[in-house]
Amino acid sequence: MRRNKRFALFAPVAVAALALSACGSDSPTTTPAPNASGSTGAAPSASGGAGAAVPVKANTGELTFGSDQEPTGFNVNTSKDAGTAAVNVTVQILPSVATGTPDLGFQFNKDLLVSDPTVVSTSPQVIEYKIKPEAKWSDGKDIDVSDFELQFKANNGTDDKFDVASTTGYEDMAKVEAVGGDKKTIRTTYKPGKSFPDWQGLFTNMVPAHLVNAAPEIHEAWANMFNTALPVSGGPWSLAEYKTGDSLTLTPNPMWYGAVKPSLQKIIFRFLPESTTQPQALQNKEVQLIYPQPQLDLVNQVKNIPGVESSLNFGLSFEHIDFNAKVPGLNDVAVRKAIALGLNVPAILDRTIKQFTDKAEPLGNRIWLTGQSQYEDHSGPYQKGDVEGAKKALDAAGYVPGADGIRAKGGTKLNFAFTTTEGNALRQSTFDIFQTQMKELGINITPDIRPSKVVFPDLSEKKFQIALFAWVGTPFPTTSSKSIYVTGGGQNYGSLDDPKVNKLFDTAFAELDPAKSAATVNEIDKQLWEDMVTIPLYSKPTFIAFDNTFGNVADNGTSDGPFWNSYTWGVKQQ
Amino acid sequence: MLTFVVRRILIAVPVLLISSMIVYALVAAAGNPLAQLEGRNPPVPQAVIQLRRDQFNLDDPLPVRYLKWLGGFVRGDFGKSLQFAGLDVRADLFARLLVTARMVILAILLAVVLAVVTGVLSATKQYSALDYGFTSLGFLFLSVPVFFFAGIIKDLAIRFNQRSGSQVFYTIGEATPGLSGGFFTRLSDYAGHLILPTIALAVINYAAWSRYQRSSMLDVLNSDYLRLARAKGLSRRRVLVRHGLRTALIPLTTVVAIDIGGVLGGAVLTERVFAWHGMGEMLLQAVTNQDINRVLAWLMISAVIVIMFNLIADVLYAFLDPRIRYA
To answer: Is residue A396 within 8 Å of A323, Cβ to Cβ?
Structure first.
């Protein structure tokens, strides 16, 4: 069964960034993602990827998007609304300081900001933002410090009546203030001794503070004012109509202050929860854009539709195998390394995603992903299926095959349950191959395949032995991956306890220079290969397909999704 | 007859009550409806989770939760959705009921007419090529899953659209969003969206009902009173339609009435395949997300429909068969 959900939300930078894959499919649980409306640093191409912009007709055409999920509301900062379905709508309505880009990086919002934010000081950390004078909400109110203040107030965790998906980043902030009475020049000051290297990902999808603050009860307004409407817009589009359960319509915001006005007259979202209906709807021209989870049949079906352009790309979601280092047998790093040595990831790829894309490669880094400029492959001898090497390693560690062929040492048998989510054909295939490969090494693997609603709580309670699931990366992995790999981290399901890793994260956190921080993060990954509590497998593909009479539609593997540049979409000039 | 109807309605009340208790307990026992929220990473603040628990009374004992729900229900307040915050369950339910009813009623009418016609023809021309043809068709439709059949007719419809150069058939949804135009434009749009799911749903029901009708008609055709009617000089047509068919419709009436009740509860597969946002989708969403208010609302309305149509079946019985009179 195909994945039925895919969320990839930018966490308010750090922690929110990496998220579990959830729901039967490998859709991660979401945390609000930093999204931005505005500038297109990476210009889209007609072929679904970043490239030269295509000339389109002004003020012409309607594009209908077949969405496999309906938003539960539009304040993506809240736990109830955080999700791709809402982000697709809000990314070009609610203003953000930065947007994810197709090259899996980010860019600052040049329509909102006078210039890139500046680091005024590092101790304490102070960041300054300058908002353009013409940046206004569609009701004429300025986008200014009040919007930033509300974002800080709601997300910093000091008022537990605010429903928020994550407090990451904001909890380290001491204050947000206007500079010298200028409400368009804003400074955020972090607490003494606290630094937050991924500050670029904060202040995204900001809701209009003037509306929330004017409501009788601010917490209620924050949580529920935007359940079925976005009364004002700070981006190129406005939410014109929303028929719950059926469709919603975006129209150009007449008060849009940016340089590039939307070329389309409307974007319509139609909710098609059954993804198998999407290719036929595309073929019948009832929708012009789909963004389903790629499955072999669906991809092949779409590729055969004339007049449709499609592409498979790699986003920031990746599959990985985790070991519970508290389980007897797996608590021995020699066993974990032997498994990694004997594991043949290319063979797994051949039976899974390589069926519909030959661009897939084993992933050699847990933090920087394929496609990100900072990516380095640290896998070395691992993942290559060196069965003899793995056997020798296990022999050397004292694990001897018993009469049943299963290795054991001192009463500890290498017999493990493999946990993953049900209803996912790719994961089922991965399990089958892994089980076969481990049998060759003398390790017995049994299935523990259950619904995601049961699996993920068990993972967080460390009730597993070996697990297969996905994380969603971000352009800001320093803070997002910390909770996975530091001792006692909230997402450290494998119970990794390595002082070296902890120290390297402290170093990375103290470093505000992105290049130096990236290098430190790569050092962390190298150390993680020594610890081998997790084995990355592959980056997961994303799939976009659209009617080729439209131009500038481009995939974006970050949590901002394909609508990141929707105001540039249009009917191609012939 | 009135006494009978009133008695049946009164009996339905405790049936509905007990059904609602059982379903409430089952849904509540199915697991933690906030599990997905609680399993998020990074973790959602505990205070936020507690807010949601308080909002839906999740920390109250089960009987208390049920009684609170019942109290609201009898006052017409079906509660809010757990999955879609702020969504009024009652408004959503009735909107979806209209969507489902639109498809189902037309499909049922089509299926009944086809079933009666082909069932009668099959019976009167038993073992003929026509009989074998209709029988084969019936079994074919019985054995083909609805999603497979739907996929085929959608493909055929798309090819027709492409050949004709105009959008006659639609494969998703119940209407084109934001369509502007007059009455006939809208009617044409509704019709275009209605055709394929109606055919898919009609075919499933037609297959079974045609078998019932054929079998029932064969029983009647061999009865003495029909032979007597013919012997008395009545025309074959009059004998078949006025005397035979009327009796032969009685079993079909029961089956159709019971089936309508079930189908109106939501033709889940059909709605899923054609992306209709009706009762079937509502049930699927509600059960998947343990959205207890929506599940109960769906149950109550479906149960009322089933009870109502069973009652209609019994009343029709009396109409079709003068020997039947209810005390």
So the answer is: no
Q: 3-state class of A515 per DSSP?
A: helix
CA distance A510 to A506: 6
What are A388-396's contacts with CB under 8 Å, separation 24+? A389/A341, A389/A342, A390/A338, A390/A339, A390/A341, A390/A342, A390/A441, A391/A338, A391/A342, A391/A441, A391/A442, A393/A334, A393/A337, A393/A338, A393/A341, A394/A334, A394/A335, A394/A338, A394/A441, A394/A442, A396/A334
Contacts of B111 (CB under 8 A, 6+ apart): B201, B202, B203, B204, B205, B206, B209
Closest CA to A38 of A573, A572, A563, A570: A563
- Prior bond of B33 cis (ω within 30°): no
Q: Which residues of A18-52 are buried (b: 16+ CB within 10 A; e: fewer)?
A: bbbbbbbbbbbbbbbbbbbbbbbbbbbbbbbbbee
Burial of A305: CB neighbours in 10 Å, binned 0-12, 13-18, 19+: middle
Q: Note whether A322 and A416 are within 8 A (CB).
A: no
Look up tokens 């069964």; give the residue: A1
Check A244 against B92: CB less than 8 A apart.
Answer: yes
HSE-CB at A459 with a 13 A cutoff on CA atoms is: 40
| Termini Cα distance of chain A | 41
**d(Cα A233, Cα B176) in Å, to the nearest integer?**
25
Give the global pTM. 0.84
User: Does the CB of A257 have a partner CB in chain B at under 8 Å?
Assistant: no
Q: What is the pLDDT along chain A (574 residues), one digit of tens a residue?
A: 333 333 333 333 333 333 333 333 333 322 222 222 322 333 333 334 445 689 999 999 999 999 988 998 999 999 888 888 999 999 999 999 999 999 888 999 999 999 999 999 998 999 999 999 999 999 999 999 999 999 999 999 899 889 888 888 999 999 999 999 999 999 999 999 888 989 999 999 999 999 999 999 999 999 999 999 999 999 999 999 999 889 999 999 999 999 999 999 999 999 998 888 999 999 999 999 999 988 888 999 999 999 999 999 988 889 999 999 999 999 999 999 999 999 999 999 999 889 878 889 999 999 999 888 899 999 999 999 999 999 999 999 999 999 999 999 999 999 999 999 988 888 999 999 999 999 999 999 999 998 877 788 788 889 999 999 988 777 888 888 888 999 988 789 999 999 999 999 999 988 888 889 889 999 999 999 999 999 999 998 999 999 999 999 999 988 899 999 999 999 999 7
Distance from CA of A492 to the nearest CA of B (A): 11
CB A99 within 8 A of CB A114: no
Please state, in angstroms and rounded to a whole number, the distance separating the CA atoms of residues A10 and A33.
3
Q: Angle CA(B134)–CA(B136)–CA(B140) in degrees, nearest 5? A: 115
Which run of H or of E encompasses B161?
A: helix B146-164
Q: Which of residues 417-476 of A touch B (CB under 8 A)?
A: 453-454, 456-457, 459-460
Query: Which of B85, B171, B273 is facing A73, going by the closest CB pair?
Result: B85
- What size, in residues, is chain B? 327
DSSP state, residue B323:
T
Q: Which residues are CB-neighbours of A516 under 8 A, at least 6 positions away?
A: none
- Phi, psi for residue A546 in degrees, rounded to 5: -150, 160
The residue of chain A with its CA nearest to that of B148 is A276
